[in-house]
Each structure stands twice: as structure tokens, then as C-alpha cells.
Amino acid sequence: MKFFGCLFLVFTSSLLSAQNLFDKEISNLLDPALKPFYFGVASGDPQQNSVIIWTKVWNDTAKMITVSWEVATDSAMTHVVASNEIYTSFSSAFTAKILVLGLQPATTYFYRFETGGIFSPIGRTKTAPVQAEQLRFAVVSCNNFEGGYFNAYRLIANRNDIDAVLHLGDYIYEYGANKSKKHPSVRQHIPEHEILNLQDYRSRYAQYRLDKDLQEAHRLHPFINVWDDHEFANDAYKDGAKNQQADEGDWEVRKAIAKKVYFEWIPITDNVEESVIRKMSYGNLADVFMIDTRVEERCKQVDPYDTLLQCTTRTILGAKQTAWLTQGVEHSAAHWKVIANQVVFSELDAHQLTKKSRINADAWDGYPEERKELFDSFYANNTKNIIIITGDIHLSWGFDLVFNPTNKNNYNQKTGKGVIGAEYVVPSVSSNGLGERIPRFLANIVALILGRKAINPHLRFQNLVDHGYMILDLNNERANATWYFCKTVRKRTEKFSDKDSWSTKWNENRLVKEK
Ligand SMILES: [Fe+2]
Question: How remote is the CA of residue 71 from the centroid of ligand 1, in Å?
Fold first, then answer.
């Protein structure tokens, strides 16, 4: 069934009764004190004069309801600068999303909603600057609810010094509940089965958004999101996914449902194509390019030794997005060109660990020709100061951004020859990684092998074990990445165990460890 057929299914299923919005178990998780705003408030996609605000109202009927909203310059909501009301209905799961216009740049605002005489919690957000001396983003990815508690979000919520949270995807996971007695999860997915239909996807977002730590991070900071594969299904690509079996229905239908629900729950700019590709301007200091390496144009992954790997027609971005990105980066007047990306961009040779999987073919290593096209464009235009931020892989890496790093004509680690920026890979908030599979000392041996100068000289920093988040701190002199690691995700805690900090200087671009 093709696109219009999918839409028909999505919308006819919306005509079911209100009780069918979520799995029954979601009702058992609601805190009566928060009725009807059980899912809190959120904001996103801040621009210099606008921001999106979001809430969801619980409604036991299928009737359309009115929601009022107001935005103020003070936390007491006395100096209101914008207000109005909108309708929300069953077709959007009673979520409400408003693009608030006419705001001032680099300004903190407060907002709230009201329906039936009841007010929501008050949210806080911040618009983007025109001129800034410093920007600070919290960067996250991969919060599997079953993997553990969202301690990283609590730590982010506790901060008052960030401009926005950049989420690189895997905001939910599609898997059913883990029933393993040997490796039990600390908490379990609702519904218990793998999510496939509209009610399933909505229930999963509802469960995640009832998490207090995620809810508080949303309440206190604007988010800028892109999706990865698990918002759809594991190892997704344009025409399918590894976790899409033949008996699980039509991929196009599932993809359309996943997109619809993502746009319902995430405070992201609505657009006709339901695409996440967009540029966020942070004035003189940064342009942030939000890209889609998953469902827009990605070809199916191939085996690492498949001769198709080098095929010039295999795409991960597609021609249109590649042109948009290379031209956008080339013409950007911002000090730093930040690319918010899903899968690891840098070359990574893992053959000394495992010959069978010498590269990760789900990452950009599986699409080398299109990566070369990007590098060719960056080098041809003498573009530097590119910061790629990456999620997906559930570990932390810092790379000198350079083409073909083992070729001494291309790259010199000591002098920074050939380096045009950095790639900072962020740890998972809670999703299982190497640390859940092998002891730390073995993970450290893996890091030693991967970090050998003969095979991966551009790999400068590694933490293969810990969960947490990263702060990307930009000013005129340098782009700093500081990784904050949580003590554990097996219980709720506000303690973090450690941090690592690396910087790349403007126009020098070689990664340097901070003291
Ligand atoms: Fe992930």
C-alpha cells in the first residue's frame, strides 16, 4: 500500500472511540494531582523571534476541547506578551502545539496552558540569539525506558546555563518488554509487545513522557529534535527496517504512523512532508543543520564486504538533502557549522576487533561514496569549523574530522593538517551499550585496540561504558565538548561520576584535551 493508502488507514483509525487512544495500562500511571496535564509541558525549535510550546490534555470523551495558552516574561505569568486559544481533538491524541511568534531574541520566556479552569505547570524556554558570545547546548540521544532511569535528563533539568537540548534520536524504542530473567530490565515497556499500530506508538510516547525526569527537562529547556531508527524500528532505512518482519504489515503504513505520532508528541516545527530536516540559526555563533540519515532517502544497509558498498548510487542523505547541506554549510556565515547527525560519520576501522564486522555498515562507513561527496565539498570550499554531533551508538567518542585519516598526506594528528572540525559522539541516556555486555576492563582493552594510531589515528577520545549527556559549549575561540557521565542508570540518582572535556580551536580544528 502506498502513501495515500497509509494516510487513509491512519485517519480512519482516528475515528475510533477515545478509550482506544492508549493501552489501558497508561491510565494506571497517571498522577491524579496533575489532571488533565499529566504529560506536562514542553517547548522546542526556538528561533530568534519564535518558539513552539506543547502540552497534552487528558480527555475521557472524544469531543474536541479548547485549550488556552499564554507566554510571559516572568515566572509569575504577570507580564504576558502573547496569548490565545486553540482546539485539540482526538485526531492529534489531544496534544496541542503552538508556534508563538513575535518574541525577542535571546530571551527567557515562561508559558502555561489552561482548560476547564485548570492550569498546567509553568514551562520555561529561551529564544535563539542574533549576537552571542557563548552558546551552550546539552546534547543527548538514546533513552531506552527499559535500559534504565533518565538520570541524565534530571541533571540537564537542574542546569540553568543551557540554551537548548539537542536530541539526536532514539527518543523512544519500539521493542516489546524484556522478559529475560537472567538480564532483567529495571522497568518495562508498555505495551508489552513490539509497537506496530497507532495506539501502540501513542502508548509508548505516553509512557516515556510520564517519566518525571524527561518531563522536567522538557519543562525547563527547549528541545531541538531529530529522529533516529527506533522512533520507527531498529536499523530503519527508507524502504524498510531490520526489525520489520514480513508478518508485521506494510512498512509504509508503519512509517506513516510513526511519523504522525512523533509530530504529535515532539515540540517540532510542523511541515507538510513531516520531515525533520531543517536549519536552526543561532546568530553569529552557530548554524545548526538538523539532518535525516534514516528514513528520508537511506538505501538498505549491506554487508561490510559487499561490493555494493562503494556503489555511487547508494545514498544515506539523498541528492536533495546532500545539496541542501553542502550549500548550507558553504554559505553559512556563522562561526561554527554544527551538523546534528544520527550515525557515526567518521571512518572507523574495527577489523582488529572483528574481521566479520570490520566496519559498522549501518553508520556512514556503510555509505562511503556519499561521505566522500561531503568531504570533497568541504575541502573544495576550504570550509572549516564543522562540528558533527552524533548519537545512535551508545558510547562516547571524539574524532578529528578528516578524510581518510590513515593517509599521512591527508592528516597529521600533531599538527592538525587536514582537520576541518570535530565529531563528538554522545553516550546514551540509558540504552544498553558495551558496558552492559562486558566488564569495564575489557571495554578499556577494546578502546585500546580501536584507538591504535595505525588504524584510527583521528580517534582522540573514548568512553565505551558510561551513560550520560554532553555539553557543547561554543564561543569565538573554541568548540568545547564536555561529557558528563552518570553514576548509574539502574536507580534514580542525581550524582554523576566523571567528566571528560575536549576542545577544537577556531580555524585550527585539531582536538585538544582540556585540563
Ligand atoms: Fe539508540
Answer: 34
Residue with cell string 530503519: 236
Whether the pLDDT of residue 16 is over 60: the answer is no
Instruction: Using DSSP bridges, classify how beta strands 123-126 and 118-119 pair: parallel, antiparallel or unpaired.
Output: unpaired
- Clarify whether residues 357 and 380 are in a common domain: yes
CA of 429 to the centre of ligand 1 (A): 9
For β-strands 51-56 and 95-100, DSSP reports them as: antiparallel
Has this prediction a pTM greater than 0.85? yes
Residue type, 321: Q
- Cα distance between residue 515 and residue 505, in whole Å: 15
Ligand 1 centroid to Cα of residue 78, in Å, is: 42
pLDDT tens, 335-372? Answer: 999 999 999 999 999 999 987 889 999 999 999 999 99
Distance CA 375, CA 369 (A): 10
Q: How close is the Cα of 1 to the center of ligand 1, in Å?
A: 29
CA 427 – ligand 1 centroid, Å? 9
**Residue 17 backbone dihedrals phi, psi, to 5 degrees:** -70, 160
Q: Of 75, 91, 125, which residue constitutes the final position of a domain?
A: 125
12 CB-near residues (< 8 Å, 6+ apart) = none
82 and 145 share one domain: no
Summarised one tens digit per residue, pLDDT across range 172-184 is 999 999 998 888 8
Asked if 459 and 332 sit in the same domain, the reply is: yes
Please state, in angstroms and rounded to a whole number, the distance separating the CA atoms of residues 57 and 35.
8
Kindly give the distance from the C-alpha atom of residue 456 to the centroid of ligand 1, in angstroms, as a whole number: 23
Among the listed ranges 10-19, 122-131, 221-230, 318-327, which one has the minimum average pLDDT value?
10-19
Amino acid 19: pLDDT? 53
Residue pair 386/378 in contact (Cβ under 8 Å)? The answer is yes
Mean pLDDT, the chain, rounded, equals 94
CA–centroid distance, 52 to ligand 1, in Å, is 26
pLDDT at residue number 54? 98
Ion ligand 1: residue ranges with CB closer than 5 A: 142, 170, 431
CATH of the domain at 76: 2.60.40.380
Residues 165 and 126: beta-carbon distance below 8 Å: no
C-beta separation of 50 from 99 below 8 A:
yes
Ligand 1 centroid to residue 227 C-alpha, Å? 10
- Predicted confidence band at 20 (pLDDT cuts at 50, 70, 90)? confident
Residue 62 sits in the same domain as residue 181: no
Alpha carbon of 461 to ligand 1 centroid (Å): 20
Please tell me the distance from the alpha carbon of residue 299 to that of residue 297, in angstroms, as a whole number. 6
Residue tagged 574530522 (cell numbers): 401
Residue 33 has what DSSP assignment?
G
